[in-house]
Structures are given as C-alpha cells and as structure tokens.
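Lab notebook, bench 4. We co-purified these components, and the gel suggests they stay together. Before we commit to crystallization screens, I want a quick structural picture of the whole thing.
Request: model the full complex, all chains together.
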Amino acid sequence: MNIPYDLKYTKNDEWVRIEGNVGTVGITDYAQDQLSDIVYVEIIVAEGEQVSQGDTCATVESVKAAADVYLPVSGVITAVNEDLPDAPETINSDPYGKAWMVKVELSDPNELDGLLEAEGYQQLIASKE
Amino acid sequence: MNEPLLCDLSVPGRVGIRYPAPDVPLAELPAGLERQNLPLPEVYEVDVVRHFTRLSQLNHSIDTGFYPLGSCTMKYNPKLNEETARLPGFAHIHPLQPIETVQGSLALMFELQEWLIEIGGFAGVTLQPAAGAQGELTGILIIRAYFESRGETQRVKILVPDSAHGTNPATSAMSGMRVVELKSDLRGNVDLGALQAECDDTLAGLMLTNPNTLGLFDENVEEVIRLVHQAGGLVYGDGANMNALLGIVRPGDLGFDLLHYNLHKTFSTPHGGGGPGSGPVGVAAHLVDYLPAPVVAILEEADDESDLPPLYGLVTPSKSIGRVKAFHGHFGMAVRAYTYMRVHGKEGLRMISEYAVLNANYLLARLRDHYHVPFDRICMHEFVAEGRWPDAPDIHALDVSKRLMDFGFHPPTNYFPLIVHESLMIEPTETESKQVLDAFAEAMIKIAVEAHHQPELLKNAPHNTPVGRLDEVKAAKELVLCCAVGSYTE
Amino acid sequence: MLATIGVERLEDLFQDVPASFRFPELNLPPALTEMEAFAEMQDLASANESTHDLVCFLGAGAYHHYIPAAVDAILRRGEFLTAYTPYQPEVSQGTLRAIFDYQSLITSLTGMDVSNASHYDGATAAAEAVSLAYANFRGKRTKVVLSPNLHPHYRQTIHTYNHGSAIEITGEQVDIRMGPKALIPLIDENTALVIVQYPDFFGRIYDHTALVEAAHAKGALVSISANPLALGMLKAPGEFGADIVTGEGQPLGIPLTYGGPYLGIFATRTEYVRKMAGRLVGETVDNRGQKAYVLTLTAREQHIRREKATSNICTNQGLMALASAVYLSLLGKHGLRQVSELCYHKAHYAARQISQLEGYELWNSTPFYHEFVVRCPLPVEEINAYLLENGILGGYDLGQDYPELESHVLLAVTEMNSREEIDLLVETLAEVPHE
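Here is the predicted assembly.
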C-alpha cells in the first residue's frame, strides 16, 4: 500500500498535500483499493466557494460502493480537477497524482495538526484489516 | 443466448393486436399538442409471445428449482392464488367504486386485517404499504407522528442493529430521523450494554429484525424491549423474517409496538421478478389512530335477525399519518395472501414455521463441518455460513454462489449481513423436501472440496448458465440503459 | 432430520423463544381444501359488482381498458412470476432483458433519456421526483411548487413523504381553472421542483413549454405526471423539456384490481440518473463475449448507501413493468396511437352529447383527453345512485377533494365504451329525476 511521507491524512482516507498556503486534496491508495474499480466521480464544490473542514467535496462510486469525500481543511476552493470526472479510473491508477480533486487555500493552518502523518495512517489501516 | 432485443425485431407496418374502428364521429385533434413521432416496436403477436417466452426461459425461478435466497423467503407460490386473484369480481373492480358495490373486496380486506392482527398480536393493521420498504417508512412515520402528538419532538433517534437490512437506516434517514447503529454481541444478539448507553430521552425507537439476519432469535428480546420502553421509546419489528414465527410467538405479545409483514415472503404472493410486494403494518392499541388512510372498518354491524351482513367501508384514522400511495394498497396481493391463509388455517400456519425452521436447522447440521458458521447455535428459518477457507485464500463467497448455479440451484444471499465476512445466507423455506435439501447439501459439500482442489472451477463459474460472469464495471461506466431512441422504426 | 440436527422433538428448535409466549393458541379457523377455499373466494368476488357487470365511466387515475390475451399469458409464466429481483445476472437474464425492454419502451414513450425499472405507483413515483430534486440541489433548494390539478391521492402522498422535512410545498392554493401558467409566479431561486399533471386530473391538456422555460430560468426542475396511454397521441413530455416524467402505468395492460398492484413510471434526463431512486438495468458483456444485462448503479441504493441513500426503495413492480412491456410491444407504434385516439374521440362524443342535456354543463373549456368535468343539476351522489340502478358506474365526485367543484363529476371514456353505452349514459342522465 502506497502511503507517501510528504502528505497528511484523515481517518476517512483522504490526503492533503500542503504547498505554501494551498492544500491539494484526494483519496488514498487504500481507499481506491477498498472501493475497487471506480466508475464515477462528481466534484460538488466550485472554485471560489468557502468551505469548512468535514464538508463533502466529492462523491466517488465503484460498482460495489459509493463514498463521500470530506475536506480535511477549511478555506476557499482555488481549483477543481475538471478532467477527473471524464476519467474516474485515474483514481485507481494514480490516486496521489492525476487524481487530485480540489485545491483549498487554507483559512486555518492549525487544522493540519489534527491530521495524521503517514505513520499514523499506516497504523490506522493496519488496524482495519 | 441469442434472443434479440425488441427493438431489433421491429419491422415497419406490423402490429400485434387490432382494434375496432371508431363508432363515433371523429373529434378534431388538439392543435399543437398532437404527437408527431411515436418510436415503438412494430411486431406481430407471435413475435411478442416468443420473445418473452424465450426470455422467461433464461430465468431461475421457484417453479423451476430450489431458491434458498436468505431473508427473501422464496417459498412455493400456490397456483390457486393466481386463480382467485383473477376472479372478475376481484380483478375488474375500480378502486373508487361506491362501497356498496365492492363489499366482497372490503370483507376480504377486513378479514385479512383481522388474520394479521391475530397472527402478530396487534390491535390494528393497514394494508396500504406497497412493499416491505414502504411498510417500514409507514412505521417510522407513525413513530414520529406519535411523539409529535405527545409533544416529545426531541425524540429523533432510531437505533438500528448492525445486522439490519440496509432499508432500516435508509428509511429512518428518509423520515428525518437520526440513525445510530448498535453492535451485536458474540452470540449474535443485540449488545445490551450498547443498547443501554443509547437509551435516553432522545430515543424514538429501535428497529429490530427478530429473528435477525443471522437467522437467530434474540435470546434477550424481552430485556431489549423492556429497556427501550423504559426509556420512552417504541420498538419497530422488521417482519421480513416472520416465516419463522407463525403460531410460534406473536411479536405483539413480546412487546413490539409495530411491525411490517411481507405478504410476498411469508404469505406466498409471487415475487414477480422484484415486485409487486405488499407490506401491511400491524400496530399496538396506542398507535391505531396513526395508521395511514384508509383502513377497512365495519360501518354497520351485521343484523342477525334480518340476516343482513355487516357493511364494510374505508375510514381514515383520527390522527392518521396520511396516505402512502394512491388507493387502498396492493389488493391483488391481499387476495393471494388471504387465499393462502385460508388454505392453511390455524394449524397449517404453525406447521409452515415449524418446517421452515426444521429445514434450516437440517441444512445447517449437514453443512457445518464443511463451512464455517460464525454464530453456530440452533437457528430459526435461515442461517449464515462463510464462503471462505483459510486454506483456499483465493475463494470468495461469490465464487461458491456462482458455482452453485452449475448444479441448478439459485445461490444464497451474498455479502449480507455485513457483520459476517463472505457471508452465505441460506433460507430453504418449508417448501422443500428432504431430498431437495440433501441434493443441495451434497452440491455445497462438493463445492467446498473443489474450492481446495480445483479452485479454478469456482473462479470461472458458472459454466452451464445462459451467460457467464458479467462485466459490471463496463455496465456502470458506459451506462447503456435503453435501446437507442427511434431504433424501433429505422 | 431431527437426529441429524441433534434434537429429539421439533419443539426443541424453539427454545430461544420466551416460554411464556411460545406456541400461542391462535383464534383462527381451521384449514380449507383448495376446492373449499376457491368456493369461498368466489363467494366474496361475486359480492362485488365488476366492470364486467357495470358500464364504467369512472376514471380519476385508474382506467378500464382492454388487456390483450397475450399479456396475462406471459405474466403467468412461472419463470417470470416466481423469480426474485435479478441479483444473480447469470440466472436472471429473462427478468433483466424484460426490464431493459421496459426501460427502452418508457424512454421512447415519454421522450426522456432514461427510465428506471419502475416504482410502486403513480403517487409514489411523483413523491420520488421530489426526493430526486431535493438531492440534486443537495438540500439547498427547499421549495416544491405543486399544481392543485395533480391527482389528490398523489398530492396527499407527497405530503406524507415530506411531512416534517425541510421541504415546503406551495401551489395548491392556485385557482384550479387556471392552467400551468398560474404556477409561474410561484417559482423562485429556492424552488427545487415544479410538479404538474398531463393530462391534468380534470382531463385537460396544456402545452407545458412555457412553464418549463420559466422554471429553468430560475434553475428549478419540472416533473410531469403523465398518463402513458395519452402519450400515444399527445406530445411527449420530453418535448416540453421536462426534467422528470412520472406516471401511473396501469392503463398499459394492468387490470383495475381495486387499486393495485399498479406501476409507477419514472423517467428522467441522463444528468440526473445517479440521483434517481430505484432499480436500473444496463447492458454489458459476459466473460464469453456475449451481450448481457445486469442491475447497474447499485452503489447508490439503500443496501449500500444505507442512511445516505436518496430513497429506501428495494424492489420495483417487476411483474407490472413486464405487463406494460408486453402491452406496449403488442400495440406498438400503430396500436397505441389507435387506442389513444379511440379514447379521445369517444370522450369527445360523450362530452358533446352530455353538454346538450338540460341542466348539465361542460366545465372544461380547454382541450381535454379522455376525461372531462360536467356540472350537474343535482349532487353527484344522487346522480351516481340513479346511474348505478341502471347498471352504470358513474364518474368521480369532485366535491370530495375540491369544495369549489361541488356537484361536478369527472367522467372517463375509453375504447371499452361503445357508442351504445355512451348513448345509454346520456339517456340515463337525462332521466335523472330533477327539479
């Protein structure tokens, strides 16, 4: 299971990559593996929208399951990945790269302290197995 | 499987039925609202009959074989029911006819209500809900209306055990209630500690399937109900598993406040490839006034002296939650269910449940050495085994199911309940003879051996069915949901 | 069997059931033989007066139509009748293909992109349209504009489904004499859905294009509850730009059966398919390279989404959907148009004849389909009682639901009513003792 060291994680299997004051959000390799073949993704927030930690930003669907993607951080949406809905399988093949979902300009960087580091996330998914 | 789709059978100019020419002067068609293009098939009657007959032959059904689909109660559907439901006096009456012209139907509905009241131990029954899921919705709406009328609007929490069917949480959420999941204990009962922790003044009710989806009768059911009542909540029974309880125990006696029945499970109305169902709801005395409208009641008592029968009519209970569908429920299903009940009578109803439970325990006994049974104690009308073995790591429950098809059996319910990994939920019903159960057990045992020695037989199964395993990802991604528009008449 | 299980008596299997309540003495009669049970059911059935005994002019959401013999012959095939939901596609291609045929026929008939495998009936389908719209706007739009000209049972069902929810229902106060345009001022930026009926409850047919345009201008969706048989000759709701089409499928080969089981039609646009509740069959291939069919988009259904699902619906009306698919196939392009027009012409003949009677007046001024409203010289109850004495099942008393329509009756005429029957109705109405 790929769990990059430079990212932060949530208990709900989202990741966030921090670059300056902007966080890029997606779902983890573990999440895509659990869902299996992803057939549909819908991003439900728009650029410029004010969002809070825990808000739903996307819905992901496989043949077996449907999952909501929750925002790990609060702030303003600065970009959404408009290519993703046309190629939902990217989430299976490149969850940390091309399958990013939204970018958020952080309004409260302190929230990052509440997120998991790679090691903590690894332990969490080990306990779920 | 080479049966074409209807749209491919169409040839311009053909028609499957002729109608008489108009015997009245023609009226002018409405300007601007007339349809210009009606892309429907053009086929002969024989084309239609052959097409659908051939399609039917691609189905597994109760009439063609054993169908042990857990929690669905796939029992034999007696042919008599189909005859009685088609009597012109039942099949060709309009739902809005004056009650004087439909006393036979109203009498039947009233009697069916009375039988369900007696079987379940309740004070009132509505026949309106169209299916089990709508029965549940009705039940939860009644619970909410009950607390609203008592001013206890803070009661919005519905407890749902983790073994429950997915409709339970969906129904509660649909009715604006807050769903809290309760875990099961190691014997498959509701965890009393977890229950106690949730018993506060926001509790509206508990949705309890008993026997639960593991096929187990909750050993603490009286205590569970007592705790909920003590906290001021109501207990809703999901009657999907009533086939274990006819003449065995009445849920109302145990303290259930309300419960939905599934006429298409317990009372033998046909499943029809996924409906129509029928989900009557029974309620205790304190909830009778909240039943959806209408219910059938006696408007004027029978007069024995002048030999007059009672006058039946449709009434709206005083605090009714309203209507959950048009008209008066699935009357056609009520006729079938009532026919079934009359044929079985008091003793027959109890025998149904006794034999359903006997058959399930017999299969459990025959299979427990070959399949792991996670909650292994005497079961009711169904049980859950696991379709996995530590020494056959590639095999899943789905593979066992698909391989069963090669032996001519319908698979059990897969991947439900969620609390068992790789679950195979097996409900034989009272319909089956020992010979059928033995044949099924032999097939299951053979499959367990194959899983270890010829796993590819399972992984590639089914082999003998009209189609093999399907590409579900393609179906969900490409979404071809109908013939191309206009393709009938190219 | 008991020995294999390891118990001595059948009763031993029920030890988990509390002893004090075990094996209750049910106060129910003993079993009947098949012969006796059939006789008893015959007695009950013959206590009813059916549309075989009476000349029927009653409609109001359930209609007396001819059902071709082949429809029931197919329904009675045990392979369709006694199968369950096609969870295992390898042994359920019959049901799956039949539903796919149904979906194709309904999308063609309604002029929409997709149809689900059906809902319970016209009322619950209309209520599910509200759930779709609410989910589509993620709860951010909370208003539903409901035409008073939608079937009263459907409106009551919508109220029951949404009681206590965030949804606010308005529109029923609008003057029923007005067409759909009267609803336009009520549509605003908070409106999720506008619901109308076509032909409306009074049989009137309106062009809904302007309403749809007005709703779309505010970002709201429009759901049209349509009579599918009327669509044999009337413009498809899809042509008005409707977002959702629902309807009662009973006219398509399903017997009246005192109100059910019927068929809830539900069709929509591709963009809303994931918000649509209910079963859906899709085309794919199997591992042998054959075209095959399977339940699809199941991830949005209750058994997976649980408390997050749009609806709790599990089943469809499988057998009724099959009935309508067989019916629509038999009639096809030409037959459906023919039946649809027969209803229309006969209704117009009846309306003309009745409107010439003294004391009776046609309430409709706009075009209508196969139902129309007549103002009567007496309470409808009295007129219907007289008709019944003469073997005629009269129309629906509108005063029950619309106080302003006291002494107004809603009459339905179908292909089943011969000219002689219509003339009999007219003569009998003329004879009703009044003044």
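The mean pLDDT of chain B is 94. Worth comparing against the SEC data before the next meeting. Chain B touches chain A through five residues (CB under 8 Å).
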